């Protein structure tokens, strides 16, 4: 990996206010850093936009010269733009100078482009005589001339930031001051400008300036130089008018400053190592007063800075690159991917953070270079190129194009350009230098030049004219009536009437600087692959060609609209799908065989153009005015027979009881693995057509019931199957019911006497009947299963239950380990105890989970606790053997009567039985009689 970085080999001793340099001079380090194996995460490359990557102009320089380290457009005259390219490690004709560096002029033409070196300086190291002694005043070897190149009008500024100036004769010592040259009036005059050069050792530290590390012109033509090493790496910015530099220059004179020159001064000690002047804003009205800071100081925030009016509001916006920005990957580890920060200017020095663009290439150094491109696609907004010089496959490098809009900058690139050279000993560094916003071929669109100094190349990508196209596709009417035959097609010697509809498509094109005629390829497909019906049958064809596709070459003049009309027809008898729409798709593109424009370029469609249009047509159905069918299909299975010869017939009745026809009505019968389809049981009512198909492991029958199956249709049919592979492969549903009759027993029974020689079942006690019902609900039978019946015959050595008899229904084979009715009593009922199902493997009682319907297969069971039938036993209280004597009863009755008579006598004496007069005293009676007068 290669990355431009400033080393700081300075030791700082703080002794009061004094600061001392070490003896090691500062230098600009362009060495290679070994980072190990790089993880390449490829960007999803976008469709090519208008930068022509197929036919670029490639400029080559001397091997190992780092040709392409810096690039710049140069306006040769009002109608011609060429390219100047820096090669800071190139050898030149200068005497005794090794790798002094050079700048190459590369004129552009449609043919092969040749470059030649510009001799800004043809002298070797100059000698100065002091007090009669000659000494070498400068060191030009390895000075990296051409590391920085900028142009303004007919003037080119080229700098050598590692140029050294010898400051003292008696004790030679060199300061890396840097120097620059100006080429004036199309290489007719060259002047040197080295404002950091001094005659003596500069105690202020400007001798380590490295002037020209960064440089540019202002809009009015002032030269601005950055010197990051001045003043103990505080950095410095120096500016002077190019006219004053030209006027002050005198050949052989070591010019240091010019009239009107301005420069930043040494600041407080706390600003050491701030590298001011390493990067600065150029070609804009913004003055960066306070440095922008971010939390991640190791991200190289500010390594590159650029400005452009991205959102077209009339104010320049700021973009800052941080090519060593790190983010955490999917494994949680930090990965160096790079980032670019966009600050929109809302007012004077009011910068609003708006967007962060983060790279996706690990160690790709996204954001190493940011280049304004101008309005690349002529949409009214300036666009931007950002480099990722070590990204992509084999680290060939990437350049990403981002488009501006009213809200700022799009967050995804519209085009990604990959370098064509893989990394060798030195990475190709494609995109390490970028320059745009110039129209090289004068076709009305700005171009882009990309440097790849690792392979000593520079590549010019020209912008192709952009075509803004709109297309329309119309189908009328949108409903195809199969009953109306308004068109006809030839079928051999026969003309067949068909149902058809009209189809038309139109194209219009416009744009800036387009050729007079644009060629388009138009392709119209009917029922294309995405919507093709099952079986791949095309339902519609073009009337004139009887093909499902129409291809035409269409010529459109810029600003005009061209339309074509045709017809499509319905192939009614050759397809089943009448419900789904017939899709018509139109796809168009620029004709790649069309002629080049006057600049040798083919136009390209705007990347926002919709190139695929779809319409659809419906088939008119027998479903009423709304053309919407609401079928109501019902299926009733009548009978299923399973005979001794292993034949099975499935009889079914299918009905449509809805309001409309049922289109593509089919009956699907899925076959189990044991069964095979043998044929149709024909019915006079319907001719059924069935197909036998297999999909993966599933076999099924598909029977056509009609297309449509009209409303009111009722179909009866039978399907025959054989079952040659019937196996016990299914689970079964088994239920067990347990009942005690009676549910409660009272013991001993009434008038029951123990018989020492019982003859009948009544002699040994009441009847207890236990009923067990085992039901197999299928579909399989039970095999290899033991049913165990356990009865409590005794308790504490005394007899309890007497097994009298076991009766069964069904195919059971019963045995017992105890004698049934060993007294041979006369049987009039049944006696059962508890029924359990016993599994020998589980060694316990089980419930059957899966059985079959044949007796030759093993039952699969699950061990569960036993099932029980409980009969509660209630004991009756026995009569006492001691009775009450009769005389005691009579005596008790008489005693009771005597006691009653005595009680009555006592109550009589007490007057209890005397009756009181109903009306009280005689006076009361007299008062109650009516008077004679009132009676009269």
From TrEMBL:
<dbReference type="GO" id="GO:0005178">
    <property type="term" value="F:integrin binding"/>
</dbReference>
<keyword id="KW-0677">Repeat</keyword>
<dbReference type="InterPro" id="IPR048286">
    <property type="entry name" value="Integrin_alpha_Ig-like_3"/>
</dbReference>
<feature type="repeat" description="FG-GAP">
    <location>
        <begin position="197"/>
        <end position="249"/>
    </location>
</feature>
<keyword id="KW-0732">Signal</keyword>
<dbReference type="Pfam" id="PF20806">
    <property type="entry name" value="Integrin_A_Ig_3"/>
</dbReference>
<keyword id="KW-0675">Receptor</keyword>
<feature type="domain" description="Integrin alpha first immunoglubulin-like">
    <location>
        <begin position="463"/>
        <end position="622"/>
    </location>
</feature>
<dbReference type="GO" id="GO:0046872">
    <property type="term" value="F:metal ion binding"/>
</dbReference>
<dbReference type="InterPro" id="IPR018184">
    <property type="entry name" value="Integrin_alpha_C_CS"/>
</dbReference>
<dbReference type="InterPro" id="IPR013649">
    <property type="entry name" value="Integrin_alpha_Ig-like_1"/>
</dbReference>
<dbReference type="GO" id="GO:0007229">
    <property type="term" value="P:integrin-mediated signaling pathway"/>
</dbReference>
<feature type="transmembrane region" description="Helical">
    <location>
        <begin position="886"/>
        <end position="908"/>
    </location>
</feature>
<keyword id="KW-0130">Cell adhesion</keyword>
<feature type="repeat" description="FG-GAP">
    <location>
        <begin position="285"/>
        <end position="352"/>
    </location>
</feature>
<dbReference type="GO" id="GO:0001525">
    <property type="term" value="P:angiogenesis"/>
</dbReference>
<keyword id="KW-0401">Integrin</keyword>
<dbReference type="Pfam" id="PF01839">
    <property type="entry name" value="FG-GAP"/>
</dbReference>
<feature type="repeat" description="FG-GAP">
    <location>
        <begin position="415"/>
        <end position="478"/>
    </location>
</feature>
<dbReference type="InterPro" id="IPR028994">
    <property type="entry name" value="Integrin_alpha_N"/>
</dbReference>
<feature type="repeat" description="FG-GAP">
    <location>
        <begin position="353"/>
        <end position="411"/>
    </location>
</feature>
<comment type="similarity">
    <text>Belongs to the integrin alpha chain family.</text>
</comment>
<feature type="domain" description="Integrin alpha third immunoglobulin-like">
    <location>
        <begin position="734"/>
        <end position="829"/>
    </location>
</feature>
<feature type="transmembrane region" description="Helical">
    <location>
        <begin position="28"/>
        <end position="45"/>
    </location>
</feature>
<feature type="repeat" description="FG-GAP">
    <location>
        <begin position="50"/>
        <end position="115"/>
    </location>
</feature>
<dbReference type="InterPro" id="IPR048285">
    <property type="entry name" value="Integrin_alpha_Ig-like_2"/>
</dbReference>
<dbReference type="InterPro" id="IPR000413">
    <property type="entry name" value="Integrin_alpha"/>
</dbReference>
<feature type="repeat" description="FG-GAP">
    <location>
        <begin position="131"/>
        <end position="192"/>
    </location>
</feature>
<feature type="domain" description="Integrin alpha second immunoglobulin-like">
    <location>
        <begin position="623"/>
        <end position="732"/>
    </location>
</feature>
<dbReference type="GO" id="GO:0008305">
    <property type="term" value="C:integrin complex"/>
</dbReference>
<keyword id="KW-0325">Glycoprotein</keyword>
<dbReference type="Pfam" id="PF20805">
    <property type="entry name" value="Integrin_A_Ig_2"/>
</dbReference>
<dbReference type="InterPro" id="IPR013519">
    <property type="entry name" value="Int_alpha_beta-p"/>
</dbReference>
<dbReference type="GO" id="GO:0098609">
    <property type="term" value="P:cell-cell adhesion"/>
</dbReference>
<keyword id="KW-1015">Disulfide bond</keyword>
<keyword id="KW-0472">Membrane</keyword>
<keyword id="KW-1133">Transmembrane helix</keyword>
<dbReference type="GO" id="GO:0009897">
    <property type="term" value="C:external side of plasma membrane"/>
</dbReference>
<keyword id="KW-0479">Metal-binding</keyword>
<protein>
    <submittedName>
        <fullName>Integrin, alpha 5 (fibronectin receptor, alpha polypeptide)</fullName>
    </submittedName>
</protein>
<dbReference type="GO" id="GO:0007160">
    <property type="term" value="P:cell-matrix adhesion"/>
</dbReference>
<keyword id="KW-0106">Calcium</keyword>
């Amino acid at each position: 990996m290669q990355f431009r970085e400033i080393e700081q080999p300075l030791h700082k001793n703080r002794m009061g206010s004094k600061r001392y340099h070490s003896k090691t001079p500062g230098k600009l380090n362009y060495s290679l850093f070994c980072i190990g194996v790089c993880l390449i995460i490829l960007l999803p490359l976008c469709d090519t936009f208008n930068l022509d990557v197929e036919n670029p102009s490639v400029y080559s320089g001397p091997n190992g010269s780092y040709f392409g380290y810096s690039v710049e457009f140069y306006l040769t005259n009002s109608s011609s733009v060429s390219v100047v390219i820096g090669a800071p490690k190139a050898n030149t004709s200068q005497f005794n100078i090794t790798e002094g560096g050079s700048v190459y002029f590369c004129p552009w033409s449609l043919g092969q482009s040749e470059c030649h070196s510009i001799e800004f300086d043809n002298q070797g190291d100059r000698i100065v005589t002091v007090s009669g002694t000659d000494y070498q005043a400068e060191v030009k070897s390895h000075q990296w001339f051409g590391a920085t190149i900028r142009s303004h009008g007919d003037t080119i500024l080229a700098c050598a930031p590692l140029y050294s100036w010898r400051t003292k004769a008696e004790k030679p010592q060199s300061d890396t001051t840097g120097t620059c040259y100006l080429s004036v009036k199309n290489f007719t005059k060259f002047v040197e400008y080295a404002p950091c050069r001094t005659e003596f050792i500069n105690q202020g530290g400007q001798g380590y300036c490295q002037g020209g590390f960064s440089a540019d012109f202002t809009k009015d033509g002032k030269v601005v130089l950055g010197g990051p090493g001045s003043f103990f790496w505080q950095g410095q910015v120096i500016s002077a008018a190019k006219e004053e530099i030209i006027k002050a220059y005198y050949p052989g004179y070591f010019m240091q400053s010019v009239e009107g020159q301005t420069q930043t001064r040494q600041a407080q000690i706390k600003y050491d190592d701030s590298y001011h002047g390493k990067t600065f804003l150029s070609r804009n009205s913004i003055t960066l007063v306070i440095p922008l800071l971010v939390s991640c100081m190791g991200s190289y925030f500010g390594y590159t800075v650029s400005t452009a009016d991205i959102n077209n509001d009339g104010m320049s916006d700021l973009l800052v690159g941080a090519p060593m920005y790190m983010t955490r990957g999917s494994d949680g580890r930090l990965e160096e991917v790079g980032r670019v920060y966009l600050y929109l200017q809302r007012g004077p020095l009011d910068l609003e953070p708006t967007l962060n663009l983060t790279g996706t290439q690990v160690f790709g150094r996204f954001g190493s270079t940011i280049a304004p491109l101008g309005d690349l696609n002529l949409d009214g907004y300036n666009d931007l190129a950002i480099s990722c010089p070590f990204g992509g496959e084999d680290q060939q490098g990437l350049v990403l194009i981002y488009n501006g809009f009213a809200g700022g900058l799009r967050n995804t690139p519209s085009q990604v350009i990959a370098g064509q050279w893989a990394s060798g000993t030195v990475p190709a560094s494609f995109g390490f230098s970028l320059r745009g916003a110039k129209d090289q071929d004068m076709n009305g669109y700005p171009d882009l030049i990309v440097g790849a100094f690792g392979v000593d190349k520079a590549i010019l990508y020209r912008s192709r004219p952009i075509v803004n196209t709109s297309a329309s596709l119309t189908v009328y009417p949108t409903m195809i009536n199969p009953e109306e035959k308004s068109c006809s097609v030839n079928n051999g010697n026969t003309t067949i009437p068909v149902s058809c509809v009209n189809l038309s498509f139109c194209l219009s094109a416009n744009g800036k600087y387009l050729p007079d005629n644009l060629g388009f390829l138009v392709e119209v497909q009917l029922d294309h692959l995405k919507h093709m019906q099952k079986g791949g049958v095309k339902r519609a064809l073009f009337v004139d060609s009887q093909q499902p596709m129409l291809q035409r070459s269409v010529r459109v003049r810029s600003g005009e609209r061209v339309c074509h009309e045709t017809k499509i027809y319905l192939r009614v008898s050759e397809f089943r799908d009448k419900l789904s729409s017939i899709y018509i798709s139109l796809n168009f593109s620029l004709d790649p065989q069309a002629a080049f424009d006057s600049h040798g370029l083919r136009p390209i469609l705007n990347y926002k153009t919709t190139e695929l249009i779809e319409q659809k047509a419906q088939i008119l159905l027998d479903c009423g005015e709304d053309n919407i069918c609401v079928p109501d299909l019902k299926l009733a299975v009548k009978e299923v027979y399973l005979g001794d010869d292993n034949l099975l017939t499935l009889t079914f009745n299918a009905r449509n009881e809805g309001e409309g026809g049922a289109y593509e009505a089919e009956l699907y019968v899925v076959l189990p693995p044991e069964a095979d389809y043998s044929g149709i049981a024909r019915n006079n009512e319907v001719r059924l057509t069935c197909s036998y198909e297999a999909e993966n492991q599933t076999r099924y029958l598909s029977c056509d019931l009609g297309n449509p199956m009209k409303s009111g249709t009722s179909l009866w049919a039978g399907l025959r199957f054989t079952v040659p592979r019937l196996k016990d492969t299914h689970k079964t549903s088994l239920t067990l019911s347990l009942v005690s009759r009676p549910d409660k027993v009272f013991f001993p029974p009434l008038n029951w006497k123990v018989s020492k020689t019982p003859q009948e079942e009544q002699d040994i006690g009441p009847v207890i009947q236990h009923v067990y019902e085992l039901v197999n609900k299928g579909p399989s039978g039970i095999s290899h299963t033991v049913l165990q019946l356990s009865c409590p015959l005794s308790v504490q050595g005394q007899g309890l239950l007497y097994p009298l008899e076991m009766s069964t229904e069904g195919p059971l084979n019963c045995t017992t380990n105890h004698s049934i009715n060993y007294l041979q009593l006369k049987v009039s009922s049944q006696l059962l105890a508890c029924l359990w199902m016993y599994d020998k493997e589980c060694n316990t009682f089980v419930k059957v989970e899966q059985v079959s319907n044949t007796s030759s297969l093993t039952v699969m069971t699950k061990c569960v606790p036993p099932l029980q039938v409980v009969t509660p036993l209630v004991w009756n209280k026995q009569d006492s053997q001691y009775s009450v004597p009769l005389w005691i009863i009579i005596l008790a009755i008489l005693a009771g009567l005597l006691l009653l008579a005595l009680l009555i006598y006592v109550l009589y004496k007490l007057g209890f039985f005397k009756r009181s007069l109903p009306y009280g005293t005689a006076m009361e009676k007299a008062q109650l009689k009516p008077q004679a007068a009132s009676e009269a």
